[in-house]
Amino acid sequence: MRLQCEVEVLSRLLPSCGLRGRGRAARALLSLGRPPGQRGVCLLVSTARDRPGARYQLRENIEQFFTRFVEEGKATVRLKEPAVDVCLSKANASNLKSFLSAVRLAHQGTNVETLPLSALVPAKASEVEKPKMKMIITSRKEYPLTKNFPYSLEHLQASYCKLARIDMRMLCLKKLRKLDLSHNHIKKLPATIGDLVCLQELHLQDNHLESFDIALCTSTLQNSLQFLDLSQNKMKALPVQFCQLKELIHLKLDDNELIRLPFKMGQLSQLRFLSAARNKLPFLPSDFRKLSLESLDLFGNPFEHPNPLVPDIQLKIPLTLLESAARATVNYRISYGHHLLPSHLCDDLDMSKACQCGRACLSSFIQTTVTMNLHHVAHTVVLVDNMGGTEAAVLCYFCSLTCYSQFLDKHLQSNR
C-alpha cells in the first residue's frame, strides 16, 4: 500500500531528523510492506533526497496516532523506536484514512496476508518530485476531463478551451496565485472565486462577461488581488463595491461597453496601471482625481465636451431633514452601519458625493463636467483621441449655489 503526501520526521531526542531539511516537510512516498526474510511489516519513507528511503518497524512499535486533522489530509504517527514523529500533510483525506487503518493493523500484529502491502522498493523520481506548481492548457484537447488538477498548483492557465463556465475543480486550488481563463466563453463569475485566498492575478479577457459580482468585491480578494484583466467582454458598468479591491495595481478594462467607471475610483490607492480604451465613457467620475497612476490609457472613448455653464441642478432648497442629517454624518465622520441604520440609508451614505469645498452632498447637489488634463493623475498618458489630446471630461459636484457660483467665477476668469 502506498501514499503520496508531504512528510516531516521529527526526533523527540534530537532537534530534527533527515527529512526535515530547512524546517519544511518534504514530498514523500510512503510504502507499507514486508522486507524479504522478515515477518513484521515496515513503513518505508522515500523522498527526492533519499529515494531508497528510511524504514521503520511497525509491529508493537507505535506509541500514539494523532488524527484530529485527518479530514484536512494531516496526521502524525508517533513511533517508540526510534523515538520519532512521522508528520503527514497534504494527503488525500480518504487515502490517508485507509493508510492509517492499515498501519494500525500492522502495529497490532494482524496477519500480513490480510494487509494491502506493496513492494518495498526505492521510489521513482516522478513519485517524490517537487509538487507541480504551474499548468498551462491552450486547447480544448488538452483540458483534463477525468483527472483532477494538481492540488499544489499556483499558476493555472486554461485558454482557448471554449469554457462556458468556470470549472468548480479550479476553485478547490487554494494555493492559486495566478488564474488565467482568457479566450473562453464564460458568461458569469461564481462568488466562490473569492475563496481563493492567495489569488493575486485574474485574467478573464476575451470572454462573454456582462457583470462583476458584488460578492467578489467583498471577498478575500480585497486583500490579495493585484492584477485584473476584464478586457474584451460585454460589461456596461462595474459595481460601486468594486473599489473595495484596494490591493489592485494593474486593471485592464479595454474593449467593453462601459458607460461609466466606478463612483469611488479614488479608493484604489494602490492602482498604478489603468487601461479602459475603446469603451463608451462620456466622462470620468469625480473621484478619479485622487488616483496616482504610472500609466493611463483611455483612447477611443466618446468623452463629451464639458460646458460648466449648463449644469444639472438637483438642488433642493431648503434641504430636507434627511439630506441635512446625512451630510452631517459624512462631514463629521460619524460611525454608521447596518446595525445602526436601515441598509438603504447606509447605501446612500456610501454614495455621498464630495463638493469642491470638501463637504458632502447626497441627493441634493449641482452637477457639471469640467476638463481635466490626465497628466494630473498619470505619469504616462496614451492619447485620448487621434487629435493628440490628453484631456477628458470629469464630473464635478457642488453642495450649494454659493459653491457653484465661486467655481463659475474662477472658471470664467481663467478663460478670459
TrEMBL record:
Taking every annotated instance into account, which residue ranges of this chain make up the domain PIF1/LRR1 pleckstrin homology? Answer: 1-118
Keyword line: Leucine-rich repeat, Nucleus, Repeat, Ubl conjugation pathway
Compartment annotation: Nucleus
Asked if the record carries the keyword Nucleus, the reply is yes
In the UniProt record, which is one GO cellular component term?
nucleus
Per its UniProt record, what Pfam families does this chain match?
LRR_8, PH_LRR1
The principal location of this protein is nucleus
Biological or metabolic pathway of the protein: Protein modification; protein ubiquitination
**UniProt cross-references to SUPFAM superfamilies, sorted A to Z:** L domain-like
Q: How does it assemble?
A: Component of the probable ECS(LRR1) E3 ubiquitin-protein ligase complex which contains CUL2, RBX1, Elongin BC complex and LRR1. Interacts with CUL2, RBX1, ELOB and ELOC.
Function field: Substrate recognition subunit of an ECS (Elongin BC-CUL2/5-SOCS-box protein) E3 ubiquitin-protein ligase complex which mediates the ubiquitination and subsequent proteasomal degradation of target proteins. ECS(LRR1) ubiquitinates MCM7 and promotes CMG replisome disassembly by VCP and chromatin extraction during S-phase. May negatively regulate the 4-1BB-mediated signaling cascades which result in the activation of NK-kappaB and JNK1.
What is the name of the protein in this document? Leucine-rich repeat protein 1
Where is the organism placed in the taxonomic lineage, from the top?
Answer: Eukaryota, Metazoa, Chordata, Craniata, Vertebrata
